[in-house]
Amino acid sequence: MGDEIRDAVKFISQELMNNPETDKSKLIDTASRKFDLNPMQTDFLINKYIFNKDNC
To answer: How many separate domains does the chain show?
Structure first.
């Protein structure tokens, strides 16, 4: 796992701790842009936060 995906996971996790009602899809989109993630990395976040698949 690269630094950018690790940073994105930290960012999303922190945002969800601060506001659990946050729209996860929008949060993933924000993290994807902020950390310049590729489509595969974005799919990982979708699986982790939307479909609850921890396949790391």
So the answer is: 1
